[in-house]
Write a structure and sequence with these properties.
Length: 113
Amino acid sequence: MSERAPLEFWEIWYPRATATGMLVGRGMLDPTDVLLAHAVPDIITVEVSSRDGRRLAYGRQLARTLESPMCRLTRQGDRITREDIWPTEADYGRPVLLPGGEVGILLSWWNAD
């Protein structure tokens, strides 16, 4: 029997929508301590869990820190923090979660004038 890769699930919820919140995106990716997220609401709740459903980290009611297109979610132990950013070259190569749950790698960034 082959060993499965240690993939993790990152879920981002908008807690102010509907009775129980609305899922913004759920992505499966290799373990990371930093995940970029594109176009998330002003308040989010983030949960990181293992493939078998164990909660690894959690951030509740994380408020927007800057009017920007992306945020940087950082795992510190079992806690998630949020910092809204305009991506720079230092963010290239980081995983990014898009609304709906697709995960990619940020290769470049530009913004129209």
